[in-house]
């Protein structure tokens, strides 16, 4: 009897490492890196693992049980499914390494804002000895999006004695240590609490362009914005305008509508904006493949889910 197939798309980072981990841990499956040159029995493909590839894979593999997506974003996958009715589950490979790395990135940049560290870096270029004023009271941090990464970021900041609030579009179960505002009715109150606003949201039709003029002017004057969600969350001109008006003191942006960010983009020319090249959540193939193994094993053994399944009604 032929084994079911796990098909890995070759655009996954360090795909050979990913393949080797699955090969060593999933004895009951044939592991295949698929492309147009591979003679693949598509009827036997039960699991597809992809990253950026979206070209009609749900038509290629009609007997899928699981679709695993590397990284935390699935917006580009769901929007391009060719079939509206499908029975397979979609899971994000948000592994512990990824959660730890991204939440550390959040904490690092909150601390940089609190200690005005960007000014020290600037002072180095001019040999300027200047001690920045640090307020004794820490800024209040608001996190939009309280999934695995948002919650990990919250708890780390709370352990550093920051006051943290969360906001979620829909009611959630959580084990965090902070207050979480829910839905549109509590959104303005959430914004009024924030001195640093962090976007960890998934990209959906309802969250696209959420960081706009209206939101920015509901924050406390002089607030700081950090976006690790998606570039499409930010209305670029609205953010630039709010910074020019000094409503927003600055921003740290790791994701953009167009990547790489074009050299002519005004974000590069405003020294109150820090640009990082989508590095908050660099993927580790070994960790992701090990986590994929857990999801696959749990699915077929009917064990408890790991909280990675996507609700396609909400797109996250």
Automatic annotation (TrEMBL):
<protein>
    <submittedName>
        <fullName>D-isomer-specific 2-hydroxyacid dehydrogenase family protein</fullName>
        <ecNumber>1.1.1.-</ecNumber>
    </submittedName>
</protein>
<dbReference type="InterPro" id="IPR036291">
    <property type="entry name" value="NAD(P)-bd_dom_sf"/>
</dbReference>
<keyword id="KW-0560">Oxidoreductase</keyword>
<dbReference type="GO" id="GO:0051287">
    <property type="term" value="F:NAD binding"/>
</dbReference>
<keyword id="KW-0520">NAD</keyword>
<dbReference type="InterPro" id="IPR006140">
    <property type="entry name" value="D-isomer_DH_NAD-bd"/>
</dbReference>
<feature type="domain" description="D-isomer specific 2-hydroxyacid dehydrogenase NAD-binding">
    <location>
        <begin position="111"/>
        <end position="280"/>
    </location>
</feature>
<dbReference type="GO" id="GO:0016616">
    <property type="term" value="F:oxidoreductase activity, acting on the CH-OH group of donors, NAD or NADP as acceptor"/>
</dbReference>
<dbReference type="InterPro" id="IPR029753">
    <property type="entry name" value="D-isomer_DH_CS"/>
</dbReference>
<dbReference type="Pfam" id="PF02826">
    <property type="entry name" value="2-Hacid_dh_C"/>
</dbReference>
């Amino acid at each position: 009897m032929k084994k079911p197939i796990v098909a890995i798309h070759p655009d996954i980072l360090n795909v050979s490492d990913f393949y080797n981990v699955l090969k060593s841990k999933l004895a009951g499956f044939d592991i295949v890196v698929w492309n147009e040159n591979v003679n693949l029995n598509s009827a036997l493909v039960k699991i597809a693992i992809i990253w950026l590839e979206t070209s009609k894979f749900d038509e290629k593999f009609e007997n899928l049980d699981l679709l695993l997506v590397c990284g935390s974003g699935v917006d580009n996958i769901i929007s391009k499914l060719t079939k509206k009715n499908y029975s397979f589950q979609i899971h994000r490979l948000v592994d512990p390494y990824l959660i730890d790395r991204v939440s550390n990135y959040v904490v690092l940049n909150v601390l940089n804002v609190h200690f005005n560290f960007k000014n020290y870096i600037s002072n180095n270029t001019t040999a300027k000895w200047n001690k920045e004023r640090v307020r004794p009271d820490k800024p209040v941090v608001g996190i939009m999006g309280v999934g695995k990464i948002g919650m990990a970021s919250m708890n780390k900041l709370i352990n550093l004695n920051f006051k943290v609030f969360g906001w979620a579009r829909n009611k959630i179960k959580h084990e965090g240590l902070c207050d979480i505002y829910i839905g549109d009715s509590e959104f303005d109150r959430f914004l009024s609490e924030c001195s640093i606003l962090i976007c960890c949201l998934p990209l959906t039709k309802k969250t696209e362009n959420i960081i706009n003029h209206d939101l920015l002017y509901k924050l406390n004057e002089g607030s700081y914005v950090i976006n690790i969600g998606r570039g499409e969350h930010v209305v670029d001109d609205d953010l630039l305008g709010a910074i020019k008006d000094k409503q927003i003191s600055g921003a740290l942006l790791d994701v953009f509508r167009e990547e790489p960010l074009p050299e002519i983009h005004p974000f590069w020319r405003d020294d109150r904006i820090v640009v990082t090249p989508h590095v908050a959540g660099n993927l580790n193939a070994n960790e992701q493949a090990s986590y994929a193994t857990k999801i696959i094993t749990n699915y077929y053994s009917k064990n408890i889910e790991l909280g990675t399944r996507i609700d396609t009604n909400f797109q996250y």
